[in-house]
Write a structure and sequence with these properties.
Layout (H helix, E strand, L loop, with lengths): L1 H22 L7 H21 L3 H23 L3 H9 L5 H13 L7 H31 L7
Helix pairs in contact: 1-2, 1-4, 2-3, 2-4, 3-4, 3-6, 5-6
């Protein structure tokens, strides 16, 4: 049952990556690679969550997979790696946490207790941590493989 859930999650994440790839005018011949990056990255994040990792750490794992795949696919297709990295990472953006943060921030003036502020802060911190994990996961493989060689 859990494999079906992960497969379904990967499928819809691939569809989301495809939508953004089309939106960003990615060439048709590499659309499948964008779908693959989005699906595999999000599936790895889901597997890491099922193993017991917290969401920011699981997102770091998934975005690292996207970063490594982007470099490999960029070399294979002779295209910039950002085409695959950006479209593959978009399904991992924490939209729900950002939405909840804004909703609770808007409720602060009308609140009678400080629980609203605490919930807004918790959601805001989670949003920031997940976004930082996406950025680090995509940038780390580029720093490892695409760093400039020293001139001797």
């Amino acid at each position: 049952m859990i494999f079906f859930v992960i497969f379904l999650d990967a499928f819809w994440s691939g569809i989301a990556a495809l939508g953004f790839a089309i939106l960003f005018n990615v060439p048709r011949r590499v659309l499948y690679a964008c779908v693959l990056c989005g699906a595999l990255g999000h599936a790895m994040r889901e597997v890491a969550i099922q193993v017991g990792l917290p969401l920011p750490t699981a997102t770091l794992v998934g975005s690292s997979v996207v970063g490594f795949m982007a470099i490999f696919l960029a070399r294979y297709h002779k295209m910039p790696s950002s085409i695959f990295a950006i479209t593959g990472a978009i399904p991992m953006v924490p939209g729900v946490f950002a939405f909840r943060t804004m909703i609770y921030i808007l409720q602060i003036p009308e609140a009678d207790n400080s629980d609203i502020l605490l919930i807004a802060a918790r959601n805001g911190v989670m949003t920031g941590l997940v976004l930082a994990a996406i950025a680090i996961g995509i940038a780390a493989p580029r720093l490892i493989f695409l760093r400039p060689k020293p001139v001797v």
